[in-house]
Amino acid sequence: MEFSTFFAVTVGGGIGALLRYFVANLGQSFTSSDFPLGTLLVNIIGCALIGFITALLIGPPWQHREFLRLLLLVGVLGGFTTFSTFAIDSINLFEDGRIRQVLMYIILSNVFGILAAWSSYKIGSILFTAQST
Fold this sequence. Notes:
Blueprint: H1 3-28, H2 37-58, H3 65-80, H4 83-95, H5 99-132
Helix pairs in contact: 1-2, 1-3, 2-3, 2-5, 4-5
């Protein structure tokens, strides 16, 4: 692998991790419960961003497409999204006997995450296809 690959993933991952910390804490501050709202918001935002950025990168030709893919998708969004945290939050809710909350958390994360990725991909495809014509 080239240095630029390591650089893109490392820098992007650091940025993504800092953004995750900020957004998750901000999101969690909107509730007084211990429901993992911050993680839910990070995952939905991350899903929306991956759809949008993917649409951007497959649009008009980019000179540094692979570098941007590594930086933004692998690095930033890899550091930003928190599926592993989602898994442990789900386990904790389940083990605390909060079955309704764990089911709601799993359903909301998956449904809204997939919907966010799909809709932002469609919007990005329309925006970036329109710009290339």
